[in-house]
Task: structure prediction
Amino acid sequence: MPRTRSRPDACPGAWRRHDAADGALARFRPVGGATTATELRLLAGAAAAGGSPIELTSRGSWQVRGLAGTTADDLADALRDDRPDALVDLQGRDVPCSIIASPRSAAVDPVAGAVATGLRGRVDVPGRLLVAIEDRTVSVVRGGSERSFGARVPLTPGVGDVSGQGADVTVVINGPAAGPPTPADPAEGLLDDGAALLLDGVDTGLRHADPAALALAAVDAFTAHRGSAWRVRELDDAARTAVLAALGAATTPGVGTLEPGPADPTRLGADGTTLEVLPRLGEVDLPTVMALLELLDRGATLRATPWRTLVLRDAPADAVERLGGLVETDPASPWRGISACVGAPRCRKSLTDVRGDLAAAVASGHVGGQVRAHWVGCGRACGTPGGRVAVVEAVETSGTYRTVVRSGKVNG
Ligand code: SF4
Result:
């Protein structure tokens, strides 16, 4: 829906904090969710000083609450010094917006990195913009069977991961190291003409051989025509047409239409050496951090996902056992698809202790495992994930809620 913004966006980042009831809130946007052991240790240490766990957001970012000013600066400095190419660079420049990527794919890492390099330090990119890079060669489920890593797999409606998050710019690649196509498969060739571009979660039909260049071109076209808009969905018809015209000159028309993936592609549990786990309410406490650090020290790598899970690649064989009881690992967990804003007492606008109410509801067996839901303490609905979701909103201080079904909204 077209929308005119009267002020620039104020999304918190590493250097721009949000003043919350419990102190400064800083957000760190790891590229594609990739987080090193040192970064995890620094984030958890700063969060512990503020009396909170670190939190996952609906954009695959980390959030630290309750920071004093000097603590926040020290944390950003330490993150910058540790890995200039990741969260904060040597000039202290944060990546201006969130970049999410298929968490199970090593092939997508360099693409996400190239997009981050192209965007870092740009002041014309709104913090609310969301860029997604999807690799559909990974874990594509078709006809009840599963293919994975390395094989060239044709695109099929209903599969994928980050393409279902309703990002402003989504690029879907068929694998930079793609092997020969499968001649017998009628769907083969859908992306032989290059990576596909989706805007606001919808296939534009535009293709380009270089996925990073395609994503950056789309951001350029958006920023050139956005006016005061923060998101692609806020463009009016004229601006949307101008964006597509600009992109059309630099791309080629594709074959077929690409369907985005599911809004909640969570796949808890182990799949070979890849393990996906779900911290309840997106909160990662110190015992969990310690267990994760031990696994990272033994060769695993860590990705935060926009569906508020953690994906460990190259996880040791005992990883599920090591994390057992700390996070959800069972695919049938009632916590799957359930999230909440921070609520009272950490947000002064909240009508109630949302997370406490939700935990009690899940424990009672009345909530969880059925409908994807996000509980919030007021109508701002912070942190609502992308895709179709039931927003359960507090309407009284007594803990009374109403449910609204929303689609494709991401605030967090
Ligand atoms: S939705 Fe309302 S109560 Fe929840 S964090 Fe946002 S402002 Fe606070």
Remarks:
- The pocket of iron/sulfur cluster is lined by residues 341-343, 347, 349-350, 376-378, 380-382 (CB under 6 Å).
- Helices lie at 37-49, 69-82, 109-119, 211-225, 237-248, 286-297, 319-323, 354-364.
- Residues 139-158, 175-191 have pLDDT under 50 and may be disordered.
- The CA atoms of residues 146 and 317 lie 21 Å apart.
